[in-house]
């Protein structure tokens, strides 16, 4: 462990020396707000008697981005073409062989996508303070137990979570990484172009009303299948969730088969709480769907099922994250970025209830061709220009050009900035679908990753009391 601590300190020293030795520092104003000190005066871990193992209670976001391909690009305004169909013919069948016969036209539609830009900074770090320890009892061999990043596939490379309890610079970089992961998780679903620098999320792309990117002509053949559950409970007695999901997937499979795009790799995506409630009733509902008879006096009116078997099916669904629909097993992804409605949003929802949507997202079509993926502005492509700066640049890229980091200096202080410019591309909206206004009533809501949610929890302090003035002969002189 001593060797590992030595290596960590050496890495920070190398970074500090790199910044100090810069001949051309960037003289831009820094944000001199207080960063979270780990050790030294006010450090959150500078507490006598603190055990070495530090446990995390931070909730990480999860979602579809863990399975979406990431494709680099430099095209600002792309076009994704499709053939929407063929018109009805004009003319009549000829009497003679050489007369004109009926003719028709092919029709096409181009879709497009838009970049967003997401940025987060670290707090300004004072180089003079990062190496300070409160006293010999302020240990820097602490060990993190648990994970802070990584469930979405969006963690910037170079993030060593084990260093966040000992190294200030890495802790600040991880904080920026946590904020980045949360925001990308949200925008992947809820992003809208009416908000500056947001990219359009899947919620506004899996929709009806698709139009041509160049003419604004309606492209009904590319419309998604959108259904409304009318704020009925997912396991209630009104609308039947088995009927709705079965109809949704039958409709999408019918399109895929008849357009020659099968096989399609779909995933079913929903909020974690909605999945927990849906999976509770799905086995019984699915295995008895339309099995009852009209003669309610007959003993055969209620089909016989084994409760233990249904419990086994439910547990298998939850542990394996899948759902069987019309004989096809689809992977299920629970996504914390999907919007959730509460009683404050809609009068159909009472306290203790929530509502959200269930999505069918096509990841790829025949031949493994991706149709839902994340594109990003490839920062590597600026290398030809950056190389002319001859080593004076204060920024670099990571993750195959997905992220860009920059360092900003003011004398002995520095701040890091993290940036990405991504977009989510849905090439085949006609193979995607959703069921809106699905209400659910869990016994307990899960903890949320959204800091504005009533179910978000943190606590503790970011700064402990500073070092009190010691007694000395010179203290009053």
Task: Describe the SSE topology.
Layout: H1 2-20, E1 53-55, E2 70-73, E3 80-86, E4 106-111, E5 118-121, E6 125-126, H2 127-130, E7 143-145, H3 168-190, H4 202-205, E8 225-233, H5 241-258, E9 265-270, H6 272-287, H7 307-320, E10 322-325, E11 328-334, E12 354-365, E13 369-370, E14 372-377, H8 383-386, E15 395-398, E16 403-410, E17 413-420, E18 422-426, E19 433-440
Parallel strand pairs: 1-7, 2-14, 8-19, 9-11
Antiparallel strand pairs: 3-4, 5-17, 6-17, 9-12, 10-11, 12-13, 12-19, 14-18, 15-16, 16-17
Helix pairs in contact: 6-7
Written overview of the protein:
This protein has 8 helices and 19 strands. It is of the alpha+beta class and 477 residues long. It has a domain at 2-69 and 114-200 and 376-423. Strands 8, 9, 10, 11, 12, 13 and 19 form a 7-stranded mixed sheet that branches. The longest helix is centred in the middle third of the chain and has 23 residues, at 168-190. The model is unreliable at 22-30 (pLDDT under 50).
What is the gist of this entry?
This protein has helices at 2-20, 127-130, 168-190, 202-205, 241-258, 272-287, 307-320, 383-386; strands at 53-55, 70-73, 80-86, 106-111, 118-121, 125-126, 143-145, 225-233, 265-270, 322-325, 328-334, 354-365, 369-370, 372-377, 395-398, 403-410, 413-420, 422-426, 433-440. It is an alpha+beta fold and 477 residues long. Strand 15 and strand 16 form a beta hairpin.
Give short descriptive properties of this protein.
about 475 residues, alpha+beta, 8 helices, 7-stranded mixed sheet, 5-stranded antiparallel sheet, 19 strands
């Amino acid at each position: 462990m001593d060797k590992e601590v030595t290596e960590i300190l050496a890495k920070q020293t190398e970074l500090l020396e790199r910044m100090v030795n810069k001949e051309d520092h960037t003289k831009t104003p820094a944000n001199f707000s207080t960063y979270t000190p780990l050790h030294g005066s006010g450090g959150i871990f500078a507490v006598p008697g603190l055990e070495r193992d530090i446990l995390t209670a931070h909730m990480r976001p999860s979602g579809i981005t863990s399975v979406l391909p990431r494709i680099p690009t430099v095209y600002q305004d792309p076009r994704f073409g499709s053939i929407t169909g063929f018109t009805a013919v004009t003319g009549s069948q000829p009497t003679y062989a050489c007369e004109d016969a009926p003719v028709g036209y092919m029709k096409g539609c181009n879709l497009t996508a838009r970049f967003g830009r997401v940025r987060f900074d670290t707090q300004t770090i004072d180089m003079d303070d990062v190496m300070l320890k409160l006293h010999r009892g302020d240990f820097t061999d602490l060990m993190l137990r648990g994970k802070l990043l990584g469930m979405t596939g969006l963690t910037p490379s170079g993030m060593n979570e084990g260093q966040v309890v000992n190294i200030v610079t890495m802790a600040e970089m991880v904080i920026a990484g946590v904020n980045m992961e949360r925001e990308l998780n949200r925008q992947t679903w809820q992003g809208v172009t009416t908000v500056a620098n947001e990219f359009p999320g899947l919620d506004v792309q899996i929709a009806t009303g698709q139009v041509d990117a160049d003419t604004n002509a309606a492209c009904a053949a590319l419309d998604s299948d959108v259904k409304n559950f009318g704020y009925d409970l997912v396991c209630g007695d009104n609308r039947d969730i088995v009927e709705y999901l079965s109809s949704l997937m039958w409709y999408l499979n019918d399109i895929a088969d008849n357009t020659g795009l099968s096989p399609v790799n779909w995933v079913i995506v929903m909020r974690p709480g909605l999945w927990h409630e849906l999976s509770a009733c799905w086995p019984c509902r699915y295995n008895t769907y339309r099995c009852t008879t009209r003669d309610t006096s007959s003993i055969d009116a209620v089909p016989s099922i084994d409760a233990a078997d249904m419990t086994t099916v439910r547990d298998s669904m939850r542990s394996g994250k899948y759902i069987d629909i019309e004989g096809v097993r689809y992977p299920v992804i629970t996504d914390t970025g999907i919007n959730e409605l509460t009683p404050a949003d809609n009068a159909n929802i009472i306290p203790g209830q929530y509502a959200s949507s269930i999505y069918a997202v096509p990841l790829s079509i025949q031949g493994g061709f991706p149709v839902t993926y994340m594109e990003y502005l490839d920062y590597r492509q600026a290398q030809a220009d950056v190389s002319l700066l001859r080593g004076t640049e204060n920024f670099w890229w990571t993750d195959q050009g997905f992220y860009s980091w920059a360092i900003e200096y003011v004398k002995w202080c520095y701040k890091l900035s993290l940036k990405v410019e991504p977009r989510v591309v849905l090439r085949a909206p006609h193979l995607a679908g959703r069921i809106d206004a699905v209400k659910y009533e869990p016994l307990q809501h899960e903890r949320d990753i959204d800091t504005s949610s009533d179910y978000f929890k943190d606590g503790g302090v970011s700064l402990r009391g500073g070092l009190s003035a010691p007694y000395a002969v010179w203290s009053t002189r």
